[in-house]
Design goal:
By secondary structure, the protein is of the alpha+beta class. It has two domains: 131 residues, 2-Layer Sandwich (Heat Shock Protein 90); 100 residues. The longest helix has 27 residues.
């Protein structure tokens, strides 16, 4: 088990009051607690801040924490992470998370994991849960089958606009004669990309993450975070997912 150096409830309660489970017993509000673990290396130390869900029914809480567990998200144990950092100050060198929500039934959060190899990278993983069951919501499953072609076309149009903007920025930053292959600025949003999504106060976000820019010019990569505001989302959603949208009937 990780050594907990600090734990504090974030300013999030989902729902804000206790509720009754089908069995009739009172259920504590769902909350997210930050557990901080210190990594110690030969030259410096680092901190992993990791989310743990509290409250809710035992089954729902267990399911959410299983999906958010450190080994599942990072692909390695905390013990292995500590040893690697102690030996070379490399591998996983930091972690943090942000919580997004817009209603009592929804818990949405993003975990950012910092890694160090030849150069530093940050990997983000987003999660959205139905807090009444603990079920992890799938970005593809939330969309009605007959609406998927329309949503994919809409998101691809947003992506193409981002690509065009990124090309113009690259020309300004690097000059008209810079040798950047056109294929680096090529990409189309497809059905497989519906799996990568998150939800926050701005709406539903699907993320295109298949660009492969070299680290030296990674800042010029087109922004693949594509947003559908709640007011526009309902027509795309499956009937069983429309509870996600406050404006939907």
């Amino acid at each position: 088990m990780p050594r907990v150096l600090f734990a504090a409830a974030l300013a999030l309660l989902v729902p804000s009051t206790a509720w009754a489970a089908p069995s009739g017993e009172a259920v504590a509000p769902v909350a997210v607690v930050a557990h901080e673990t210190k990594l110690v290396g030969p030259d410096f130390s680092a901190t992993l801040s990791w989310p743990t869900v509290t409250g809710g029914t035992p089954a729902a809480r267990k399911a959410m924490n299983a999906a958010l567990s450190f080994p599942v998200v990072t692909g390695q144990s905390l013990a292995a992470t500590k040893k690697e950092f102690k030996d070379c100050q490399c591998g996983v060198v930091g972690a943090s998370f942000a919580v997004h929500t817009h209603g009592g039934r929804l818990l949405s959060l993003t975990i950012a994991v910092e890694r160090m190899a030849a150069y530093p990278t940050t990997e983000t993983s987003s999660f959205a849960f139905d807090t009444t069951t603990g079920a992890l919501l799938s970005g593809a499953a939330l969309v009605a089958e007959d609406a998927k072609p329309r949503l994919i076309a809409h998101l691809d149009a947003l992506l193409q606009a981002r690509i065009a903007t990124a090309k113009e920025v690259a020309k300004r930053e690097l000059g008209e004669d810079a040798a950047i292959p056109d294929e680096m600025f090529t990409g189309h949003f497809g059905a497989a990309d519906l799996a990568t999504f998150r939800i926050d106060d701005a709406g539903l976000h699907w993320v295109y993450s298949r660009f492969d820019f070299p680290h030296a010019i990674a800042a010029l990569e087109p922004d693949g975070d594509l947003t559908v505001p709640f007011a526009e989302a309902a027509p795309f959603l499956a009937p069983g997912a429309r509870w996600l949208v406050p404006q939907a009937p």
